[in-house]
Design goal:
1 helix, transmembrane helix, single chain, mainly beta, four-stranded antiparallel beta sheet, three-stranded antiparallel beta sheet, Immunoglobulin-like
Length: 158
Amino acid sequence: MKPRVSLQEPALRNGNFSLRIDPVRGEDAGLYKARVKYNTELHSCHVELGIITVTLSPPNPVVENELLLMSCNSSHRASLVEMCWFHSGQPGLASRTFCSLPGALSILRPAMSDAGSWRCQLRYSDNEIISATYNLQILGFDSPTSPVIYAAAGSAAH
């Protein structure tokens, strides 16, 4: 896993034996065990790392008005009961929520207003709830509210 894995050397002196993985990959999911011997004392811990993945088809950035499928998967072992997507919206627009049975969220004609932060929430049969946030980028035109734009003669218009 090198060079993605590190121990924070200065923190070791303070008793912090945290493992840092950057970036995390799907294959990193699983059980991690740590043993620390200090003088005559032996300490151990077990931590399970679960992975949640958000994928887009086609990949980010998405072109305005082209079909978009967003899916969310996790390494959690229980049965998936429900998948919800929460869109924070842009300033001045309402937030939206989409819930469905397991599967992908499809947006038939994504618009500039669909850009921004989306949170995927997975609910499992063992009542575990897991979520991840994804920043969706849309390539397109953010149309003005009026199709007429005025510019001063001699100035630049954008």
